[in-house]
Fold:
Amino acid sequence: MGTVTDSRERIVPGATLDWPSGTGVAFVVPAYREEASIAAVIHGLADAFPRARVIVVNDGSPDGTSRAARETRRATVLDLPVNLGIGGAVQTGFKLALALGSQVVIQVDGDGQHPAHQIRILLDAMTSSGADVVIGSRFREVSSFRSTGMRRLGIGLLRLTNRFVAGVDIADSTSGFRAYNAAALAFLAQRYPADYPEPEAVVMLARAGFRLHETGVVMTERHTGQSSIRGWKSAYYMAKVLLAIALHAFRPAGIR
Amino acid sequence: MGVTSVDTGRIQILAVLGSLLALAFVGRLLVRRRLREEVALLALAIAGIFLILAVWRPLLEQLAFAVGIAYPPAALLLLMAVGAYAMLLHHAVVLTRLEERQRTLVQEVALLRLALEEQGSAAAAPPRSETPAETS
Structure:
């Protein structure tokens, strides 16, 4: 870790924060098999925030995701030599963003679900709320998102568990559309859950004393690809995440 | 010549041979460095217990009766199941740790590769590394 941090700091000067242009802002875009949509996502981010750093983490995709991202010439592309899953991919991006001295990191899905213009909402919410973490929620205020009954049930269960274990009320803890400040970033770069990380990360952050804030965003239908969580897998997902979260109640809260 | 009583000495010989075989097999794996000592200790202990029980049969009966098992062979099965479970759990723990380490290493490789690329592109033409991403 140390060596990478050093070389990184040489390449990019430590950043001050200027949101309108994106200075000090890093986007972490995990991408697996997103050859068709990744370029549009990168251009959307780079157009909206010309000075932000767009970090694409190609999670060992067998298709041309990496090439498509590189050809935009507007993104820093990290290629994982093997597939790590979403958590491992996002954490890699966090490690780089941390080494770059980013002030705010925003996780954006590689499939185009999170439009660039919605990012300002996250950033504004971060300023106005003073929170360390802002979660873009599909269930607060504005919503154009339809989801299945099974999924709603699962998310409701998660919400209850969150309130119980972490003492926070987050309606949409599976949302991957999030902004983290530098302190939260440093925390997550060190420890980030592996497979289905979003809900667990919420609990870890809350228990470690970070302030979380949820704000309404509009997500669009997926451009391409499928959700990684479908059918029977979602039942497995729920069981796994609930167990993982419940276990946090028995662990000492992370050190900030 | 109907066989009405089973010659239990036969199974004792078999059990002793089987336990010895298991011990020898683990020992051979160890000698050839195909097995780490850490993992082998548990396997050796289990095989050793079976050998002792096979040689000294009253022990099994005493053990079984002591914990309230009326049929001593059931105690043997129970022991076997517990032993297998312990081995499996041990493997799961080792796997989890390996997975954690592998994740860190993979991330480090990706970060180092980027650092190399950026050094290369700063010096001369960027060395394009097409991602050799083989997942399976």
In short: Chain A has nine helices and seven strands.
